[in-house]
């Protein structure tokens, strides 16, 4: 089977970059700097579906996303990392930059309020800054 | 500095076992089979505060908790893994066995309803089964 991004993840997010094991996408919600990593293998559900070495690569990819968010959004107070998959079973990891002033703090972001899509210009700016930061990290 | 478990984590959880890098505790909420891993180092907040090799060990510890939960609770439908830390900054990772019939499904468990502490006997049974499963995993 070939890897194919789940259509619900695709609809909720916008392209950023592919790093090593994972496709990195930006959640289309300007309330939170919120990345989603999707390992590019078919039929993954749990982290334990990855081989040992690929789990380590995923950990590296997550750490890379943490550093990128902290660099692009210096007002980040805390990074939230989560692999839930209750709604979309395709293995994906959320990496979210939290601020103490954001719409959900100190609660988790999932299911809070209504997402606010980026305007086209703002989206392009954020995508550009993220890609530049990933290029520096890699 | 020596490692000391945050008093709020200590109050909300009960002992299970120490594995490799992490202290594993059971959330004292019988609604969800819910483990918390706390790497036994002082002053950790983000996953990226760990060294590269310790991040891999944490990934192994998380995978171990996933396998243990799936073995002890065979009706597990999905494992949720999360490192949030908005309330308690000491680095800790939640590993939660979710069932489609549980009190929060398909939403995340954090902040849902009121926790239901185990009765002493039931707690002892679950702790015993978890410890036996960890011994088999290691």
Description:
- The structure is a homodimer of 138-residue chains.
- In chain A, 33% of the residues lie in helices and 22% in strands.
- Chain A has 138 residues and is an alpha+beta fold.
- Chain A has a single domain (7-100, 115-137), classed as HIT-like (HIT family, subunit A, 2-Layer Sandwich), CATH 3.30.428.
- A 5-stranded antiparallel beta sheet of chain A has the order 1-2-3-5-4.
- In chain A, a hairpin with a 6-residue loop joins β2 and β3 (34-39).
- The longest helix of chain A has 21 residues, at 52-72.
- The two termini of chain A are 28 Å apart.
- The model of chain A has no long low-confidence stretch (mean pLDDT 97).
- β4 (78-83) of chain A pairs antiparallel with β4 of chain B, so a sheet runs across the interface.
Order of SSEs of chain A, N→C? HEEEHEEH
Taking strands numbered 1, 2, ... along the chain, how are they ordered across the largest sheet of chain A?
1-2-3-5-4
Q: In terms of structural class, how would the helical and strand content of chain A be classed?
A: alpha+beta
Give the N-to-C terminal Cα separation of chain A: 28 Å
Keywords:
five-stranded antiparallel beta sheet, 138 residues, globular, 22% strand, HIT family, subunit A, 5 strands, alpha+beta, homodimer
Question: Could you outline the blueprint of secondary structure elements for this entry?
Answer:
The structure is a homodimer of 138-residue chains.
Chain A: H1 7-12, E1 13-19, E2 22-27, E3 34-39, H2 52-72, E4 78-83, E5 93-98, H3 120-137
Antiparallel strand pairs in A: 1-2, 2-3, 3-5, 4-5
Helix pairs in contact in A: 2-3
């Amino acid at each position: 089977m070939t890897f194919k991004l789940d259509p619900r993840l695709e609809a909720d997010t916008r392209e950023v970059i592919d790093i090593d094991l994972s496709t990195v996408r930006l959640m289309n919600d300007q309330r939170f700097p919120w990345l989603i990593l999707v390992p590019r293998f078919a039929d993954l559900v749990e982290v334990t579906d990855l081989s040992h070495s690929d789990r380590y690569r995923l950990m590296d990819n997550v750490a890379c996303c943490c550093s990128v968010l902290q660099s692009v959004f210096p007002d980040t107070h805390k990074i939230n990392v989560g692999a839930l998959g209750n709604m979309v079973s395709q293995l994906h990891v959320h990496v979210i930059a939290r601020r103490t002033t954001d719409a959900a703090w100190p609660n988790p972001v999932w299911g809070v309020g209504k997402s606010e899509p980026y305007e086209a210009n703002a989206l392009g700016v954020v995508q550009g800054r993220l890609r530049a930061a990933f290029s520096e990290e890699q």
